[in-house]
Design goal:
Layout (H helix, E strand, L loop, with lengths): L1 H11 L15 E8 L2 E7 L5 E7 L3 E6 L4 E7 L5 E7 L4 E7 L1 E2 L4 E2 L5 E6 L3 H4 L3 E7 L5 E8 L4 E6 L4 E6 L5 E6 L18 E4 L2 E6 L4 E6 L11 E5 L10 E3 L5 E4 L5 E5 L7 E5 L9 E6 L3 H6 L1 E6 L4 H5 L5 E8 L6
Antiparallel strand pairs: 1-26, 2-3, 3-4, 4-5, 6-7, 7-10, 8-9, 10-11, 12-13, 13-14, 14-15, 16-17, 17-18, 18-19, 20-21, 21-22, 22-23, 24-25, 25-26
Amino acid sequence: MVASIAILSGFFSVALALNKAAIPLPVTEIFQFPRGSYIEALQFRPNGKLLGNLLAPEASIYQFDVVEKSARKVVSIPSVNGLYGLTEGLPDQYYAAGGNFSLRASTRQAGSFGIFHVNLTSFDHTGLATVEEVSHFANATPNGLWTLNAKAGIILAADATNGVVYRVNVNTGVNEITVSDPLMKPPANASTYPSPNGIAVRDGYLYFTNTGAGTFGRVPITAAGVQTGPAQLVAVTAGGNPGGDDWTFDAAGNVFLGENPNNWVSVLPKGSKTPVIIAGGPNSTAVLGPNTVRFGVSKLDKSRGALYIGTSGGLPQYRSGNFTNGGGVYRIDTAVLDL
């Protein structure tokens, strides 16, 4: 127990002030899709354009110009019906997780999921992207992805159904469980929500959201991605159970969370155990179903702390079939939070 407390002190050592007078942050629309379109993951390209995976109505990747507020389809993957996580490996080469499932029935087709290599190194000149499935899963639902070693072709994939994390060699196709912990497992009363979901590695820890449990945790790992100890609870998400989807660190170590299936974005300041809602809210329609967040990369975006949000338009409509809003990309400027 003493060792566990000492480990956790690294995250909770400094409590940072938060300018609550700036909350809720104004939300700027970048692009909105028609009803029934669900943006699941975001990733910036080296050229400053933003990529977004669609979970519905088809498995496709779009490119967004966040200045011109426009969108362009990059590629579709017809062998699956939706895409989950997205991560960059070598420059302008990406890995997307995808498979066949039903959002309305909350079911998946076992054995249909894989990791796809999407090469955009020639896209700006030819308009063409190449796609190849590089790893296939017999009984897993890869969701959140993280590049552990781009040169060696090693990524981590959160299995949102079985509560484990896989180590995937995208060069050989081999995937194997490398992290398994009770804190990652889906609770019995929320088994249809991804557990775990978004993942990232920082300072020797794999951090993760467990959407079904509404928690944010971390587990110690080696540089090769192998678990070395038990997972630790960092915080309960602002939405509780269920809550917390994809997320990102800022440069200072503050955690910004898309809180799908709830309609808000929160921040967990470094040094705090309590997330604070910063955009949207229980009675707000400003961000409906925020699944994923990524910080902008331009000089202007860095100066204003621009955080881009990918949304579903609201998860309940996919369960009911009564569509009222389309997913989209939005921006909030977080520099005013003074973190």
